[in-house]
Write a structure and sequence with these properties.
This protein has a 3-stranded antiparallel beta sheet with strand order 1-3-2, with helices on one face. With 64 residues, the chain is an alpha+beta fold. The chain is 34% helix and 33% strand. It has 2 helices and 3 strands.
Length: 64
Protein backbone atom coordinates (compact mmCIF):
# COMPACT_ATOMS: atom_id res chain seq x y z
CA UNK A 1 0.00 0.00 0.00
CA UNK A 2 1.41 3.38 -0.96
CA UNK A 3 0.99 6.52 1.11
CA UNK A 4 -1.08 9.24 -0.59
CA UNK A 5 0.90 12.27 -1.77
CA UNK A 6 -1.11 14.59 0.49
CA UNK A 7 -0.11 12.70 3.64
CA UNK A 8 3.57 12.75 2.67
CA UNK A 9 3.32 16.45 1.79
CA UNK A 10 1.63 17.27 5.11
CA UNK A 11 4.44 15.57 7.03
CA UNK A 12 7.03 17.60 5.11
CA UNK A 13 5.10 20.86 5.61
CA UNK A 14 5.25 20.34 9.39
CA UNK A 15 9.06 20.39 9.13
CA UNK A 16 9.16 23.67 7.17
CA UNK A 17 9.32 27.21 8.51
CA UNK A 18 6.81 29.92 7.63
CA UNK A 19 7.47 31.10 4.07
CA UNK A 20 9.40 27.96 3.03
CA UNK A 21 8.25 26.10 -0.07
CA UNK A 22 7.74 22.43 -0.84
CA UNK A 23 8.11 21.28 -4.45
CA UNK A 24 6.01 18.22 -5.28
CA UNK A 25 6.70 16.32 -8.50
CA UNK A 26 4.15 13.67 -9.41
CA UNK A 27 2.66 11.58 -12.21
CA UNK A 28 -0.82 10.87 -10.86
CA UNK A 29 -3.64 12.68 -12.67
CA UNK A 30 -5.85 12.55 -9.56
CA UNK A 31 -3.24 14.59 -7.68
CA UNK A 32 -3.71 17.49 -10.11
CA UNK A 33 -6.92 18.16 -8.17
CA UNK A 34 -6.22 16.65 -4.77
CA UNK A 35 -2.96 18.54 -4.08
CA UNK A 36 -4.40 22.01 -4.85
CA UNK A 37 -7.53 21.15 -2.83
CA UNK A 38 -5.43 19.95 0.12
CA UNK A 39 -3.27 23.09 -0.06
CA UNK A 40 -6.31 25.39 -0.13
CA UNK A 41 -7.96 23.56 2.79
CA UNK A 42 -4.78 24.04 4.84
CA UNK A 43 -4.17 27.66 3.85
CA UNK A 44 -1.05 26.91 1.80
CA UNK A 45 -0.77 29.04 -1.36
CA UNK A 46 0.45 27.46 -4.59
CA UNK A 47 3.40 29.36 -6.02
CA UNK A 48 3.85 27.15 -9.07
CA UNK A 49 1.68 24.63 -10.92
CA UNK A 50 3.15 23.27 -14.11
CA UNK A 51 2.52 20.32 -16.42
CA UNK A 52 5.94 19.02 -17.44
CA UNK A 53 4.79 16.55 -20.10
CA UNK A 54 1.83 14.30 -20.91
CA UNK A 55 1.97 12.48 -17.58
CA UNK A 56 3.94 14.54 -15.07
CA UNK A 57 3.40 17.73 -13.12
CA UNK A 58 5.10 19.86 -10.50
CA UNK A 59 3.39 21.94 -7.84
CA UNK A 60 5.12 24.21 -5.35
CA UNK A 61 3.29 24.89 -2.09
CA UNK A 62 4.28 27.62 0.36
CA UNK A 63 3.91 27.21 4.10
CA UNK A 64 1.86 30.15 5.29
Amino acid sequence: MSIPINIEAQKKMLELKHGDELKIDFDCTQATESIPNWAAENGYPLTNYEQLDDASWTITVQKA
